[in-house]
């Protein structure tokens, strides 16, 4: 590793390279229960050229490279299980260009979503994708992140027009162009997004943004049972109402919200909703949705047009994972993340809820039910082997249930190492195609090894 | 080739294999000016198993394989320049399942979009993507087709949840799942869609469908100049109005429409528009759009809510290419297909219009301007070498103009052979990544060779 540090020193400034223990420790983990592992070196590139140099050196010395944003991933994506070099993109955090006339922005990968939205607000624009964490846009692209607005605006993959990517050999490509659509060549944008650092490092992203909607109404609706709430969502989707957000939060999670965000929401199965549009269209959507929810037993409905009140509601929702973490000091968070076809949603959530009860580990169910995606969040005592085992079995059961019904093991968090055991059963022979692509683009397997695919079974955890 | 026919005969019925001259001739061309080339054999599979057998035999005898829908492609995609086997999917034309509750349908690749929509109508559903031709859904997926509703609903790639694909070695994979979103593994759906038969043959598709909107208004607006019309579109997009269709048709093309469709539209630069939504929201969108268009000099605005009148308007638009073909018997159609960022749209269309005038070849400009995508359609006398040369130079100029402004050489028709000369300049080093993927998935280059990428420069046309 000395040689690698020496080689890096010929290309990067001294303060861009660190083998300090604290720095390494900070780059040994993400936000969940996955086992930690230290990088040998952490580097802080300031430019695409820096990244190219790093990749060339890594290739020369066959050193694993793991890209790192702010470490908010949830399946161990950024944990360097084969050690080597971690590339921390925090110094590449510039918003390079806001192309108002094209509704596009060009950013470096270390820009966070909140940083971008703060800047966009000055132009009356916003970036739609909002995972709970204030993640970097590079990380969000790497995991194909999504969030509460996905039901209307789509996932990360839908927002990216172009990326600059440094490949395993240090060469630099662009994966797309700036037009709204293209049928030119293979869809590299789509391939690299969600590749979790296993095919290349993103050094620049051009993203689609939207005008802040003229009219926004947020709402909260409570139901006598989980089943009622989820069935209401299914009916809203079937009615084709262009809802902008529809989030489910179970009773245990409402309690956590109330504690952490100092709200006073009734402790009942709850939907958080939002509507965007022109004034009259929105009122009609709102009224129709309310009617549908009442048909499904909604016992309390409360809507907010005021900006501050809306923000408070969504901050409460976004802080929910942290609310659990805050309340269970010393425990680690595990999240299931299945997504299922709409017709299977109600039964899947009921199934997960019942299994969660049996588990007797603290946790709750929440999620982006408009996309058929929900999380069972559980707080595990990692010292308690029995509990860890039970939690893993629970995860497996929920995934198995979803896969048997045409769903996916991960709707939005990505594979990392946590969902790798389910890749073969989910993808079948298609996993071999993925492996072949990985081998073609990273023949020495230096890009975030151990994630998504196994190369020659050598890196099974 | 005799051996190949013999081998095919052991797996397929006699009437599923043809080397008849008329059949081969029908599979030697598409709808445009590209040079024709005959397949040696045409096969008609009835099942995935049949396709697997065909691929295994093709692999064994190193015979090129070209998939064929109904031959409506526009860049020579289905023309077998290396001869070999053409797989005609017309017998795989079953709608396998309509999953109303999931807003999904499962179809075989030979189902056409009109066939699907006719069936979906019974359920109050529709499939959004509408290229001019009544193409097969397999072909539309292979070229990442789009059309007039893309501005609201997206391209083909946005509609596909899952595909069954037979790979070069005959193995069968699924590229996705049935959930609305997924972050599991590499995005094979996205990669295979738009791969134009070069990575595999699609044998089944699961597609997203929508409820037929409750309220639809179509409209026609005329403008004193092309510039006014295009700038009106740019303003509508900037205003964030969720318009469902916005098509530009120039004066020459309106004349063709009037002749072919027996309409009596004023011969002026025209926008055809459509709005979908709830009643009051739609009225507000319509009024706002009208106001914007009037600000841009709109001198005639006419809206239609009646179903028959709307259909007549859109049929006229969809038949425009045929109108030209019908009027210029013996000539061949060439289409530019660039897409550019919104801010470049007006200037790009003006530039193409001016170059088209200089050309003095019959044609017009039309297109899906809401996506920044437009076509210059020209009718070429293929016997006139000078005209062919001038037409190719024109195509090149328009593409060059778009690429210099961050656009793409093809918004929706795909690469085939017609847009292959622009792949290197558009994609740069990314073309090598595409080539590596092709080599990894089709090492013997038997899948639709000569299309999209050049393998070892051996198959340059």
UniProtKB/TrEMBL annotation, chains A, B:
<dbReference type="Pfam" id="PF02913">
    <property type="entry name" value="FAD-oxidase_C"/>
</dbReference>
<keyword id="KW-0274">FAD</keyword>
<dbReference type="GO" id="GO:0071949">
    <property type="term" value="F:FAD binding"/>
</dbReference>
<protein>
    <recommendedName>
        <fullName>D-lactate dehydrogenase (cytochrome)</fullName>
        <ecNumber>1.1.2.4</ecNumber>
    </recommendedName>
</protein>
<dbReference type="GO" id="GO:0008720">
    <property type="term" value="F:D-lactate dehydrogenase (NAD+) activity"/>
</dbReference>
<keyword id="KW-0809">Transit peptide</keyword>
<feature type="domain" description="FAD-binding PCMH-type">
    <location>
        <begin position="35"/>
        <end position="212"/>
    </location>
</feature>
<dbReference type="InterPro" id="IPR006094">
    <property type="entry name" value="Oxid_FAD_bind_N"/>
</dbReference>
<dbReference type="Pfam" id="PF01565">
    <property type="entry name" value="FAD_binding_4"/>
</dbReference>
<dbReference type="GO" id="GO:0004458">
    <property type="term" value="F:D-lactate dehydrogenase (cytochrome) activity"/>
</dbReference>
<dbReference type="GO" id="GO:1903457">
    <property type="term" value="P:lactate catabolic process"/>
</dbReference>
<dbReference type="InterPro" id="IPR004113">
    <property type="entry name" value="FAD-bd_oxidored_4_C"/>
</dbReference>
<keyword id="KW-0560">Oxidoreductase</keyword>
<dbReference type="InterPro" id="IPR016166">
    <property type="entry name" value="FAD-bd_PCMH"/>
</dbReference>
<dbReference type="InterPro" id="IPR016164">
    <property type="entry name" value="FAD-linked_Oxase-like_C"/>
</dbReference>
<comment type="similarity">
    <text>Belongs to the FAD-binding oxidoreductase/transferase type 4 family.</text>
</comment>
<dbReference type="InterPro" id="IPR016171">
    <property type="entry name" value="Vanillyl_alc_oxidase_C-sub2"/>
</dbReference>
<dbReference type="InterPro" id="IPR016169">
    <property type="entry name" value="FAD-bd_PCMH_sub2"/>
</dbReference>
<keyword id="KW-0285">Flavoprotein</keyword>
<dbReference type="InterPro" id="IPR036318">
    <property type="entry name" value="FAD-bd_PCMH-like_sf"/>
</dbReference>
